[in-house]
Amino acid sequence: MKVGLFGGSFNPIHLGHLILAEEAKEMLCLEKVIFIPSHTPPLKKSEDIADSHDRYEMVKLAIKENPSFSASDIEIRRGGTSYTIDTVRTLKKEMPNTEFVFLIGSDCLKSLYAWKDVEELFRSCHFVIVKRSKFPSENVPNGFEKLDIPQVDISSRELRKRLREGKSISYQVPKAVEHYILERKLYR
After folding, report:
1. Do 108 and 6 contact (CB within 8 A), yes or no?
2. Which residues of 47-81 are buried (b: 16+ CB within 10 A; e: fewer)?
3. Cβ-proximal residues to 105 (8 Å cutoff; 6+ apart), any chain
């Protein structure tokens, strides 16, 4: 079985994330893509990050219509700082006959070598770099695959800014996610 792993803060999840996952699923012939919201991202400032349970719920709402997508709360249940290698080690034990494909945006390339036990991580998963607008993907490390997908210029940071300013995020996140954010008064 070949499974995509898509980790991140998903703060909030948006249509760009969903398009990336769907394109990767089709282009890489993945059986499924597992979205893994982090509990506490190690390389991001903790300010302006919604509670991990809220981010997990938004992911579940966003992917509920796609049977090839699933959400895992593995990092949330573990608590503390979320290190990808810890998650991959656990998943490899739980799903021993699985080839894992780790999906990351080109915006993560500059910090990739700061990840915990990154060399072991590279041996454990096939890494696929997905080009993000405004972030170059020319310097893809050897052994990594580069995936060009349709570019959707949506960023979680910009969505949070729009919400703080009282602006609409319609058509940038799934409707159910928008309702969740507004009901819970997130990012205000």
Report:
1. no
2. eebbebebbbbbbbbbbeeeeebebbbbbbeeeee
3. 20, 129, 130, 131, 132, 135
pTM: 0.93
- Could you report the per-residue pLDDT of 136-146, keeping only the tens digit for each? 556 677 778 88
d(CA 146, CA 109): 12
**Are residues 109 and 116 in contact, defined by beta-carbon separation less than 8 angstroms?**
no
Rounded to whole angstroms, how far apart are CA atoms 83 and 7?
Answer: 10
CA angle 184, 73, 48 (to 5 degrees): 40
| Structure confidence by residue, pLDDT tens digits, 56-111 | 999 999 999 999 999 999 999 999 999 999 999 999 999 999 999 999 988 788 88
